[in-house]
Amino acid sequence: MAKLKPWYDVVELREDLRENRPLDASEFAVHLDQIRDGRAGKDYTDPQRFFDRTYVTGSLLDLASQVARRLSGLQVETSAVFNMSTQFGGGKSHSLTALYHLAKNGAKANKWKGVDSITATANIKSVPEAAVAVFMGKEFDSLNGRGGEGEPRRFTPWGEIAWQLGGAKSFAVVEKHEKEFIEPKGDAIRAMLPKDRPALILMDEIISYASTYRAKGYGDRLYNFLDCLAETARGEKNVAVVVSIPASDLEYTPADAADEARFKKMLDRLGKAIMMSADTEIGEIIRRRLFESSGSQDEARKTAAAYTEWAIEHAQELAGIDPETVQSRFLAAYPFHPSVLSVFERKWASLPRFQRTRGVLRLLALWVAHNHQDEHRKATREPLITLGLAPLNNPVFRAALFEQLGSDALEVPVATDIIGKSDAHALRLDKEADDGVKKAQLHRKVATTIFFESNGGMSQGKADASVPEIRTAAFGPDANLADLEGVLEGLTATCYYLNSDKNRFRFGLTPNLNQILVSRRGAVQPKSVDERVRQQTQKLFDKQTGESSKYVDRKYWPARTNDVPNRAALTLVVMGLETNASDKKTMDLMEAIVRDCGSSGRTFKSALLFAAPDTADNVRTTVRDALAWEDIDDDEDTKKRLDDAQRKLLQRNLDNARRAADETLFRAYRHVFLLGKDNALRGLDLGQITSSSAGSITELILWELEKNDEITATVGPARLVKFWPSSLTEWPTKGARDAFYSSPQLPRLLNPDAIKRTIADGVTRGDLGYATKNADGRLKLQRFQESMLEAEVEISDDVFILKATDAVKLKEPPQLASLSVRPEHSRIKAGEQVAFTCSAQDQYGQPHPLALVMWSATGGSITSEGVFTAGAVSGLHAVRAEANGQQASVEVRVEAPQQKPETSNGEETVEELPAKLKIRWRGPVPTQKWMNFYTKVLTRFAGSSELKLEVSFEATVDREQAQSKADDTRTGLKELGLDDNVSVT
């Protein structure tokens, strides 16, 4: 859409409005007496200027053309007497002024704007110049009378009218009636009318005169005079009487109302009632009165076309859009939005003090003058003047507005909720809104529109603004209709005097629930807020909406490391609001929990997931609101003072507040921490999460971690084999399961029992073997390459899985694989004996039967039973055993015999032997024999207090697993109370 020009760049305001000079209501409310004696402004006393700024409406054209015909002596299609009926401020004074200038100026009026339409309608060449008399009931004083120097004093309406019509000559006819204060009858009236020219008698505000002088009987005399005047005029060819009786009974007494009815009945009988209305032409009237120039019609049409296209496109969402007439409505109202002009007719017309034309002109004059000022033009470039642009912050405009409403009782609601105070709710909401809403000032515009459309919410209790009416008046081609919902929610949740019911809104005088909320919110104690936060947080995380969340244990608000158990299962640790994600203390606490569980090191550190919140201010605010609404709902006395709509609103607000509290809590927990593959805590930001993102916050966290392969519901056998510990041949099923919760190299299993499915599938497919151990510690293959159900899998330290290659070995029958000779090392002297034994092992490291052993030796002899006798040659010799193609050998050291030492007397001495000897051994022990080594060897010395055992081990692992394995080793050593100095090279 082409960019539309702002209205102030198209039309030109009147000079006084451009300069923002204060305008009094009198600018639009002058009366005929002021015009007749020159006291009114030039806009009224200068006839050409008056008609330049007057739009000849249909009703004015009808009245003026009929009066012109009557003054011209034409009696067809006209009347001699006209009873003008208008609403208070409905344009009657303006119409009387037009008749006054036409009759006073005659043919000279032909050159004035709009007069040609009057003469054409009247079918005359020009309006004849006539004698004009004006009687204003509010001006004429019958006690003091009227008359200047050289003039007779006039105390009666007929005396005044006679004087204005024919001067001294006409006054002389009724002079006696004047003195006696007796109304003249037909003869006298005909005699006082001028004979050389037509006569026009204009009478306004006659009820005011009748009311003032009712006690003196002057009102009855005016009635009698007007009755005779009307009757007489009907008999004359070129006399017209135009009388205005206001329709407003704003300040009427019962006697005034009775008089009005009496006058109206009489005039309707003798003359013609004519309704002065400009409802459909108000736009043109306003343009003539407020603007020097209507500007470029092309720009006006372009703007009207753009708004028309938009309105037709959204007709189902707007109010009162007729595709056939909508463009003409926008053109007729330009530069105003049609809603600005129609709202006064649709909603304000029934207000007792509302002046339909005069009041609207007064308001709009102040309106455009204010909005035309430099600072306002810089702030907005609106193509049309809309209801939302009404300058409610201008005291003069606001005073004029309240005058039309009939009360300033809405001063506080306007200043508090819309504009007037710097912290007015609509203004504050705009400041806090996103850029689009803030720039458009939508909260202020919508609130101002509601104010006008709801008729102030005061004089008409049922008046309100519907959502379609708000859309129509406050939005346009460049606006996003979707913003309205959020704007209305913000206003209804914040404003103190805005009431809503079923998508209808109005401003009222009584403070609404929001103001009650403010006082109750201040009474909510911080302790209550903290308690509710914990309850709702736990409720949010405990909520189970999916299959996955039931497997996760939850632990809340840990303060110490042992508040979180050390177990092989996923555990979601929920940090409290006081431990937010950006706080270093929070990170320190989480790291301590991962590292330790009380005084012991934590084994299953990878099983831990941490949920930490953002800063808590917003959460506490929404929870405090929810508690305040609950307090109001529990207060029966307060609820009794509410009407049905407010009670329904209370329930909605309570429900919304609870949802808002849950939503802010949900959004706060966007930070997740877990152990990374580098064995350090790392954070994961879930982003701008909402409760609609997942069924529960726990489900959302699990879903995000599954997506990143940090958690898995299942794991294939091949993946298990890939992460097989290099130091293990058989892997306990419990150890395999626990690895998923102790090593960050592995994904975390969502369900610990899922490992059963992995093992069962692996056994069925032949990727894994399933084995146990017998009493001797020998592996026994139970299942391999055969169907296995997960229910058959046992998770235990005594049940093992093997790789396929090792399972195949176990599946083969045992056969001789190696021989062992004992003792392995012997030291004897020549001639001494030592018995050797030979044992056999199968391919699985288990004992194997041995039938015949062939023995051989060097450095001595050996029997078939393995008894070796040392020869005389000292040194290192070998004993060898052979059986079934296998052989094994050990070393024997033969020592030369020692000479016994002799004493000085030639006798042998006896060598004293030590009382204790030390037994030492060093050598590798196969992993399958660790337990047997303890049982068969070390237990022999377990009772000795001098047994010293020193273990040295070296294991080769993959680089990416080295650090994790070292950490796990240190943890195990700590649990045993041993030195945890482990090196990694």
From TrEMBL:
Matching InterPro entries: DUF499 (IPR007555), Ig-like_dom (IPR007110)
Entry annotated with the keyword Nucleotide-binding: yes
Coiled coil: none
Pfam families: DUF499
Record flagged with keyword Nucleotide-binding: yes
GO molecular function: ATP binding
Keywords: ATP-binding, Nucleotide-binding
Sequence intervals crossing the membrane: none
Region Disordered, residue ranges: 958-985
Chain ranges of the Ig-like domain: 814-859
Compositionally biased spans, kind Basic and acidic residues: 958-977
Protein name per the record: ATP-binding protein
Lineage of the species this protein comes from: Bacteria, Pseudomonadati, Planctomycetota, Planctomycetia, Gemmatales
